[in-house]
UniProtKB/TrEMBL annotation:
Pfam family, one: HisKA_3
GO cellular component, one term: membrane
Documented EC number(s): 2.7.13.3
Stated name of the protein: histidine kinase
Organism: Microbacterium testaceum (Aureobacterium testaceum)
Annotated TM spans: 47-76, 83-101, 113-130
Length: 361
């Protein structure tokens, strides 16, 4: 119960009790006690309104003090869900109020008593039902606000989906076109070149461009999808795919992979993506340098991946354009799996990536 409600109830009890203490309707000790009991019963009006009214009625019939009974009737009217108990409570209170009239010496006295009882009990019931309707309307407004908020979120999701579809179309028109041109040019270079190294390099470029184009189209399908089943993702890389990236033609890589069987798929993907990102960064920032890759299982069943490259043997080229999000993505992936990710330069001019993941389930 809120503090405000407690203070209101204590104030009502005090008013009803003051009625008995001042002796406005009481002439002996019994009537005083009944009035105080009816006043104290108001403390139960929020939890057990009918009991509160029952405790107030004896004082109404014996002393004519209406304060506690009228307040209790108001509470019954505001809380009652069925009409039977409300009609009974109103009728009993009406009878007590009518009998509390001082004298019945004429017809006018009877009429005044009926009018007094009707206005007092009817007013309490009317205010109680008004309070109940107000509460129900307030609850309905809250439901409408929630429904409106849900509708706004739905509209926002639809707007995002539409924008994603628009971006997917733009990406397909621009990026895939450029990648396709790279594939065509690399194929043409393979045909015209006489140097075997140039042919091998062109073939590598063509293969990487074709793979990139396939992955791009898969991501575009995801962007255009309206639901989780509309465009399922293709097979995700695992440890079995490491050989595809550990023997590149343009890098000298010494790899030692000694990982236990049965690693969780998420852990396998983290290992693969870390090595892939590390080799890509070597191509960008230290082409031609020697790379060592070590992926081992720890004594506790976890995984440690260390990728280290030496300083570039040639002058460092201009860095390729990058969004600098690769390491951030790897760090977030490691943290989601409960591990750590560290990357930084070495004293000899090289660079090191260190991934550590705990044992999976």
């Amino acid at each position: 119960m809120k503090r405000r409600d407690v203070l209101i109830d204590l104030g009502l009890v005090a008013v009803a009790a003051l009625d008995g203490v001042l002796g406005l309707y009481t002439t002996d000790l019994l009537e005083l006690v009944l009035t105080l009991v009816g006043a104290a019963g108001l403390l139960l009006r929020r939890r057990i309104p009918l009991l509160s009214l029952a405790l107030a009625l004896p004082a109404l019939f014996l002393t004519g003090g209406p304060i506690a009974s009228v307040i209790a009737l108001y509470t019954v009217a505001s809380a009652a869900t069925g009409m039977v108990w409300l009609v009974v409570a109103t009728a009993v209170t009406f009878l007590g109020l009518g009998l509390s009239w001082d004298t019945f010496t004429s017809v006018n006295d009877h009429v005044l008593a009926i009018v007094y009882a009707t206005m007092t009990s009817g007013g309490a019931v009317a205010l109680g039902r008004l309070r109940r309707n107000q509460s129900r309307l307030s609850a309905s407004l809250d439901e409408l606000r929630l429904a409106r908020a849900d509708e706004n979120r739905r509209v926002a999701r639809e707007a995002v989906a539409a924008e994603r579809a628009h971006l997917a179309r733009e990406m397909h028109d621009v990026v895939s076109h450029q990648v396709s041109l790279i594939t065509v040019q690399a194929g043409a270079l393979m045909v015209r070149a006489d140097d075997p190294e140039v042919v091998e390099t062109a073939d590598t470029i063509r293969t990487l461009a074709s793979t990139t184009l396939a992955e791009l189209r898969q991501m575009l399908l995801v962007l255009r999808a309206d639901g989780p089943e509309a465009a399922p993702l293709g097979p995700q890389p695992t440890l079995r795919h490491l050989d595809e990236i550990l023997h590149p033609a343009d890098l000298e890589v010494d790899a030692r992979i000694d990982l236990r069987e049965g690693l969780p798929p998420a852990t396998q993907r983290a290992v693969y993506r870390t090595i892939q990102e590390g080799l890509t960064n070597v191509r960008k920032h230290a082409p031609g340098s020697h790379v060592t890759v070590t992926a081992t299982s720890t004594d506790t069943g976890g995984v440690q991946v260390i990728l280290r490259n030496a300083a570039s043997p040639a002058p460092r080229p201009d860095p390729a354009p990058t969004a600098r999000l690769g390491h951030l993505g790897l760090s977030e992936r490691a943290h989601m799996l409960g591990g750590t990710f560290r990357a930084g330069p070495l004293a000899d001019g090289g660079y090191e990536i260190d991934l550590r993941l705990p044992a999976g389930p």
